[in-house]
Each structure stands twice: as C-alpha cells, then as structure tokens.
Specification:
Helices cover 33% and strands 9% of the residues. It has one domain. The protein is built from four helices and three strands. Strand 1 and strand 2 form a beta hairpin. With 127 residues, the chain is of the alpha+beta class. It is elongated. Bound molecules: zinc ion.
Length: 127
C-alpha cells in the first residue's frame, strides 16, 4: 500500500480532515501502511481507540500508540491544529523564495529592500 498523500490546498485540507477522527485515521495509515500487526502476538485484527490515539489488538489487547516516535507524541492539542500548522510550514517553504524583498530593478515598485519592506502579495499574484 502506498503512503497517503498530503492535501494540496487549505480547502482540500479542511475537506479531507473535517474532524479528529479523520486525522487519526490518516496517522494510522501512515504508521501502518500495510495494516496493523500486533508486536506482541503477531495478529492483524485491531481496533482504533480514536479518542486516545491508540490501536488495540483484538487478540491480546496490546495497545500501540499512533503518535509514538512522531512529532505528535504526547501532545494533547487537537490533531487538526497540528495538521494546519504543518500545512502552513510546508506552504511557507514553497512560497519562501517569492517572499524575498524586491530588488529596486525587478520589484513591483511597492516595496524596497532599503526600507525593509516585504511584498508577498506582489510576488504571489504577479502584479
Ligand atoms: Zn496482540
């Protein structure tokens, strides 16, 4: 099974992760792309305790954390908040070159590095 792909736009993000349950399901697929296998008994049948972000083996009741060894480990914040934060960090990386201060010759005339102004709008919309 392929790793799930992240959303491309904020509208897509909101539609794809309308609630915590959707976020937990996404994490579950990331953690066990080929399905859960119990590390204690090797069985594959499990259930997700979404409120506690745990996967529990139906055979021996072993509980595995969905967020262990991830940036989400031990967080009590809503996953949607994290997903939103990650989305914006990723987006910032993409837009960062266009957020550079305009040069006097190549800029849109509304910003100048000498005055320390930044012109993200000019760069993004191309005015
Ligand atoms: Zn088990």
């Amino acid at each position: 099974m392929k790793e799930p792909k992240g959303p491309g736009t904020i509208v897509e993000l909101m539609a794809r992760f309308p609630d915590e349950v959707a976020c937990v399901e996404f994490l579950r697929k990331l953690r066990w792309p080929d399905g859960f296998v119990c590390p204690r008994c090797g069985k594959r049948e499990s259930g997700t305790i979404k409120t506690r972000r745990l996967e529990q083996c139906r055979s021996c009741c072993y509980q595995a954390s969905l967020t262990a060894r991830t940036v989400f480990h031990r967080t009590r914040k809503p996953m949607r908040l994290w997903f939103l934060a990650i989305f914006f960090v990723e987006r910032h990386k993409t837009l960062a070159p266009s957020l550079e201060p305009h040069s006097r010759s190549g800029g849109c005339g509304r910003a100048s590095p000498a005055r320390g102004h930044w012109a993200p709008r000019c760069s993004i919309v191309g005015t």
